[in-house]
Amino acid sequence: MSLNDPAQVNSSASDQNLSAPQTPSGTFPDLVCFAHLHWDFVWQRPQHLLSRFAQHGRVLYVEDPFVHPDQVEPHLEIKERQNGVKVVVAHLPFGLTWQDSDAEQSRLLAEYFEKENFTQYIFWYYTPMALNKSRNFRPVLTIYDCMDELASFKFAPAGLREREQELFKKADLVFTGGYTIYESKKLQHHDAHPFPSSIDKDHFGLARQPMDDPADQAGIAHPRIGFFGVVDERLDIELLRQLADAHPEWQFVIIGPVVKISHDVLPRQENIHYLGGKDYLQLPSYLHGWDVATLLFADNESTKYISPTKTPEYLAAGRPVVSTPIRDVVRPYGDLNLVQIAATADEFGRAIEKALVQTQDADWRRRTDEYLATISWDLTWQQMRDLMLNRLQAKTAVLATETTDSSLVSAS
Predict the structure, then answer these.
(1) Which residues 6+ apart lie within 8 Å of 329 measured at CB?
(2) Which of 65, 189, 256, 258 is a plausible cystine mate for 174, CB 3.0–4.6 Å?
(3) Residues 187, 95 share a domain
(4) What's the confidence (pLDDT) of residue 301?
(5) Same domain for 223 and 75?
(6) Same domain, 223 and 363
(7) Is residue 84 part of a domain?
(8) Which range is the signal sequence, renumbered to this chain (predicted)?
(9) Are residues 253 and 175 in the same domain?
(10) CB within 8 A of 344, min separation 6: which ones?
(11) How far is 408 from 57, CA to CA, in rounded Å?
(12) Distances in whole angstroms, Cα of residue 190 to Cα of each of 9, 146, 168, 174, 375
């Protein structure tokens, strides 16, 4: 069970009202990330970026708390991950008020920071709701990596928009997960930067090589039309239903966990195969066995600002791609004629028919690879890191000037 509520933490909940220490030029402080997504759920933007930051300093990934159905002494669980990230989960007893829950989490974090000597740290937010347990700390830098318009998602917590406005006031830098959401957030923060979905080309490029078909996919006939990702309110289940009905000769392979929607609403035609969630390392082997990859996203509030990471991942795997008209897919992938865009079931079906022979198009593959050569998670991480170091150095210079001025005033 997760706790998300706009209630504020009492100012006495944390003793971390520390002045920001100076950061030497070129060094990188510890990084503390507050996230609404479980680290072990789906490997996506936070995992790509924070795993890279962890190669240069300590990284804590603070998840929403786990609430026990019975009484338990509040404590932190620290889970080590092979990439160097430490996942932090507060365990709390059932029945706490929102205020008490946030206060307990703040207290536990303060104790952990003192124990592990976290005195110089960056706060990195994926959810503004985490302000309730962190606003009394004093990070040297505050980053808001706005990967989604969370307020548009199903079951969004009350007060999220208000907390986001508070986070805009605190944040030194705002990063966005795409260009469409950047156009909105740049109006709300003076130092916003777009960082759309990127790619681990070497990993997904494995799908272009000979690979064994996974056991649960091996028995599915061709042509295979695939989709991987979280199956939630963003998936256009009616489009999937219509395509399966209109094309019984195609097999639709859906990979990903089903969340926030009932399994009962999913179409159940014989040519639709739900294989469940898969480990990130397994994805190339599934992609290798697909004939066409799709982005079956609905046109609703939850998809207005998304920038699907799977777009370049599909292309890096060498799969032709058909997508509904998601703005951050149309621009740039549709405009560059790297991905086919289709709005209706009839259009989507015709686009799939074209895509089924697209792997023979040498010009499409060349242009795709030329574009993919311009993006990577390594490059995204480096650009973010440079912006952060520049801002840290600027803040250090301002702090030094203020200290000098204060000394002069005292001396006079």
Answers:
(1) 295, 307, 308, 311, 323, 339, 341
(2) 189
(3) yes
(4) 85
(5) no
(6) yes
(7) yes
(8) none
(9) no
(10) none
(11) 36
(12) 27, 14, 9, 9, 25
Kindly calculate the radius of gyration of the chain based on its CA atoms and give it in whole angstroms: 23
Could you give the CA distance from residue 316 to residue 323 in angstroms, rounded to a whole number? 16
pLDDT of residue 396: 83
Q: Which tokens go with 132? A: 């309730």
Report, as ranges of residue numbers, the positions in the chain whose pLDDT lies below 70: 1-27, 151-156, 399-412
Q: Residues for the chain: how many in total?
A: 412
Q: Which residues make Cβ contacts (< 8 Å) with residue 374, sequence separation at least 6? A: none
Instruction: Read off the pLDDT of residues 16-33 as tens digits, 9 standing for 90 and up.
Output: 333 333 444 446 899 999
In a domain, 100, yes or no: yes
- Is residue 208 in some structural domain? yes
Half-sphere exposure of 60 (CA within 13 A, CB side): 22
294 and 145 fall within a common domain: no
Torsion, Cα 346 351 356 358, to 10 degrees, reads 170
**Tokens matching residue 38:** 């479980």
Residue type for position 265:
V
Six-digit token pair at 338?
A: 């790297």
Domain span at residue 246 reads 201-372
Handedness of CA 22, 24, 26, 28 (dihedral sign): negative
SS3 letters for the chain? CCCCCCCCCCHHHCCCCCCCCCCCCCCCCEEEEECCCCCCCCCCHHHHHHHHHCCCCCEEEECCCEEECCCCCCEEEEEECCCCCEEEEEEEECCCCHHHHHHHHHHHHHHHHHHCCCCCEEEEECCHHHHHHHCCCCCCEEEEEECCCHHHCCCCCCCHHHHHHHHHHHCCEEEECCHHHHHHHCCCCCCEEECCCCCCHHHHHHHHCCCCCCHHHHCCCCCEEEEECCECCCECHHHHHHHHHHCCCCEEEEECCECCCCHHHCCCCCCEEEEECCCHHHHHHHHHCCCEEEECECCCHHHCCCCCCHHHHHHHCCCCEEECCCHHHHHHHHCCCCCEECCCHHHHHHHHHHHCCHHHCHHHHHHHHHHHCCCCHHHHHHHHHHHHHHHHHHHHHHHHHHHHHHHHHHHC
Q: Mark whether 37 and 58 lie in a shared domain.
A: yes
